[in-house]
Every structure is written in C-alpha cells, then in structure tokens.
Amino acid sequence: MRSESHMLQAARHQAILEMVQKERIVKVSDLADALKVSAMTVRRDIEALSDTGLLERIHGGAKILGDAGTHEPGFELKSTQFTAEKQAIAAVAAGSVSEGMAVGLSAGTTTWALAQELVKGPAITVVTNSIRTAEIFYRSTIVNAKTEVILIGGQRTASDALVGPVATQALKSMNLDVTFLGVHGMDPQAGFSTPNVLEAETDRAFLASSRKLVVVADHSKWGIQGISSIAALEDADELVTDPGLGQKAQAILAESVRRLRIAPLAPAT
C-alpha cells in the first residue's frame, strides 16, 4: 500500500489544481501516479475541490472550471495525450477500409493516427480538411502510388483543420464511402461536438457526403461538450473507442450508436 502521509491534503489540492490548470482535463490515474497516492484519495480530493467550485468533476477525472465548449487545445498538445489509446483505435478503424474506397478524414489527432495506419493499407482516395493528415500521405515513402489525397481548403483552426464555407462547399460535390470523424466531446445530450462553430459546419458536410459515419474518439472525450454539436450519438454507424471508457458510458453508447467497438490496448512492455 502506498504511503500517503508525506503529502498533506492542502498540498495535494494545490498540486491537483495546478495540473488541471495546465492540462485542462486530467485522469484520476494520472493524478494518483503524480501524487503517489491512491485513486480513492484522488477521487475524494476532486470531490472536495468540486464542492468548493475550484474545478469540475467528470467521469474518471477532473477538468478546469468553466472550460467551455469554446476552448480548443492546439494540435501539438493533443498529439501527446492518450497516444496508446489513439493508436489502438486507429488500428481497429483501419481494418474496415478496403481497396478503392473514397475515405473522408476529418481533422484531429485520432484521425491523424488513423492516417498513419492507412498509408500501410490498400490504395484509396482520401478526402481531408486536415493539413497534418494530408502530410502523412504526401511524405510517406510506403504509400501506394495509386492512393489519391484531396486536401480541402479553408480557414485554419488551432487544431490545424481547414474549415468554413470554402471547405463546406467543396464537400457538397463529394460522394464518400465512409467518413472517419474525430471529435472534441461526446455526450448524451450534446452528441458529438467541437469547440469551433465553423469546424462543426464542415464536419456536418463530411457526414452529408458519406454513406457511413465512423467516429473515432478515446475515452477522455466522454462527458465533454463543445459549443457546437456535429451530430447526435444515434447518427454514428460505428464508434471506435478504448477500454478506458467506463461501463456506464459504454452502456449508453451501445444503446445509441449502431455499433460500439472497443479497441484493445497493446500490452505494456
């Protein structure tokens, strides 16, 4: 059992607040590891801080108070978070792509991870509004020469998405077999959402142009509401996530999306 006497409650609370302020969303397990205390102690601390209005308690962790749906973390920060989960999700999602498909990839670090899997697969046509995703295909030395990449233009966001009327109009002429959608949040009320209104509009254009919608989102997105909803949970043909998603959330999503897939994590080495 861990010894917790070395850090007083007040010091733990201050440390938790500093981590939440820095990361905006933190998991109980990460806090427990950083503070060298049990998960139960962290949960009690989070509850106490939530009761005093210093942070917001969420499933499996805590988030900065008032971290509204308009806050959009940069790509560089998001690309370092939950990397194992995103890689597992990408591996499962890539398995549903076959030769000759027209594939939409929205912006985001999970779809970026998916692109790194798709370059190793069959020849396809990729339509994306993500600069980072397009670069994966353009710079790859192993990508099939028959794979085509269409980068939709528009106004650049903090997450390196190209959005707005130019992107939306271009997507109206597309006919995609499947779109893989990365999201900022997923919630029973708000559905799948984003902190950028223009990005939501562009994402909805992806959906309207696609025969199938697959949402790729790690467990940390559960309970998060961006300012603008993209689609209801029921609109997803599939949701690929990771085992970190709680049982209650899994039950809700299993009842909502047409197919819920939990991507197994690779064993720790």
Automatic annotation (TrEMBL):
Pfam families attached to this UniProt entry: DeoRC, HTH_DeoR
Q: Which UniProt keywords apply?
A: DNA-binding, Transcription, Transcription regulation
Q: Which PROSITE patterns match?
A: HTH_DEOR_1 (PS00894), HTH_DEOR_2 (PS51000)
Q: What GO molecular function annotation could you give as one example from this UniProt entry?
A: DNA-binding transcription factor activity
Q: Which InterPro entries does the record associate with it?
A: Carb_Metab_HTH_regulators, DeoR-like_C, DeoR_HTH, NagB/RpiA_transferase-like, Tscrpt_reg_HTH_DeoR_CS, WH-like_DNA-bd_sf, WH_DNA-bd_sf
* Residues of the HTH deoR-type domain: 9-64
| SUPFAM superfamilies hit by this protein | NagB/RpiA/CoA transferase-like, Winged helix' DNA-binding domain
Q: Which PANTHER family match?
A: AGA OPERON TRANSCRIPTIONAL REPRESSOR-RELATED (PTHR30363:SF44), HTH-TYPE TRANSCRIPTIONAL REGULATOR SRLR-RELATED (PTHR30363)
Name of the protein described by the UniProt record: Transcriptional regulator, DeoR family
Which lineage do the record's taxonomy fields give for this organism?
Answer: Bacteria, Bacillati, Actinomycetota, Actinomycetes, Micrococcales
